[in-house]
Fold:
Amino acid sequence: MTTTPESGPSRRLFLAGAAAMPLCAIRTRPARAAEFTYKLATGQSLTQPINARLDQACARIREASGGRMELRFFPASQLGSDTDLITQVRSGGIEFLNIAGSVISTVAAGAAITNVGFAFSDYDQVWRGVDGPIGEYVRGQIEKAGLIVAAKAADNGFRQITSNARPIRTPDDLKGYRIRVPVAPIFTSLFSSLGASPTSINFNELYTALQTRLVDGEENGLVTIEAGKLYEVQKYLTETNHIWDPFWIVANRRAFGKLPGPLQEIVRRELDRAAMEEREDVQRLNGTLKAQLTARGLAFETADKEAFRKGLMQAGFYRDWREKFGPEAWKALEAVTGGLA
Structure:
């Protein structure tokens, strides 16, 4: 049976927890010291569903291993920004990390294939691709970068554009627009192709950047916008669905290799379960968040998606990225999405 959000850690648990305390440490520790004590970090806001599901996975791993393994959980950038965390997991400073595909592409460039602008039309295409040929390709790229990666990706959502000064409905509205994007080249390329002025900023610095008008707007999924309280510093949200982004759970290869085979199996099983349950959480939230965000003051706008895609084609966005990714990656993508360029 799938665990519901109500039966797991509540959103209030995360908000009430001490900022510097790993969530798994809140529970009673096993009487016997763990044989393996590893760290799992995220850069996502405390109330995002991925944190609740990974906290549950920590507990299940400890229980299923008979106390042999303790996975201490540090959510919400407690151990550093996204780019800091990538460096740490590669060096072994932390052993496990949940990271957006867009950000992991800075060390595994092929992972950005899921971020091609306006490629996926709906979630049916997303999961057929990510649980199929696209996911197989991306996992191979991440492993070539020296990391271990879980089989199942979680859902970081279709991304929407938010703004403060004016609504964004067409590419013309983006001309010269200062928009925050993740630290990921394909995002910068997409918005530059549409005439905007993209700025790469880590998520833990985004609220302040919007509040101080360092940037005019940003783009994220509804879950992230609500969890990060970005509605407090933005007025308009345009439903563009311009990019879908996954979460990948990655591990330091040396640390994972030290685990005996049965413990590796437990870890993989429970992290995959967490990802699948998080997908269901996000699906439920996406059905209610529009009304919630509207009530909190965000005005929803309709995008001319065909105009955006036409603008990208005219700018050579698809042609350029097809050449950068190469035929293997592009074939995997178009097998699911159909022709793009």
